[in-house]
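Q:
Got a chain?
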Amino acid sequence: MSFDVHVVRVFTDDQGRWGNPLGIVDAASVAPSDRQSVAHDLQYSETVFVDVPESPVDSAALRIHTPAVELPFAGHPTVGTAAWLAGRGTPVETLLVPAGEVAVRVAGDTTYVRARPEWAPHFEFRQVRGADEVLAVDPAEFTTGHHYVWAWVDEERGAIRSRMFAPDMGVPEDEATGAAAVRVTELLGRDLSIVQGRGSVLSTTLSDDGWVELGGRVVADTSRTVASH
């Protein structure tokens, strides 16, 4: 027996470059008891197991796994899954994750999700003086926890440069981290335009009620077929 892993890159730039790969698996094809080991073997920063609808529906449920742990919410998996469902002709208005209901919106080539900052993991935030200092950080200095290193690029327009390191999740460095973008938006109290990792692009909008809308572009990569455990 085998199952398909659909792969998308989330938070690409406007040329379709960079972005964080996401593995998307039909939840019906992998038993819940096997999902963590599948995510570990696939080695994407996150793999989702989604109840794939056969036709357009209001909502779909999914579970999110890093190589090491299951998460109640994460940004690049929800944005990527929402875009993938829309692309296959089964768009949803809401994604159901353990943390709560994630509203979905698509506008042009950008997919948006709406989340609460407290759904995201806690990060240790380190502000440095500029983009060069962000890029100079050595991932090896982080052995535990979740760390977000960032600097203003243009404070007036809310532009930052960042990297994220999450050894506790089994992710030495994450290319693009929606949950951290949501958290840093709350921390700074304003809308942000973020370039993370090698060049991935994320945007956030902070509402008066504390919700954060997170947006980015998603492109499809080649799918894989994997032997069942």
In short: Residues 125 and 187 are 9 Å apart (CA to CA). The chain has a mean pLDDT of 97. DSSP finds four helices and 16 strands in the chain.
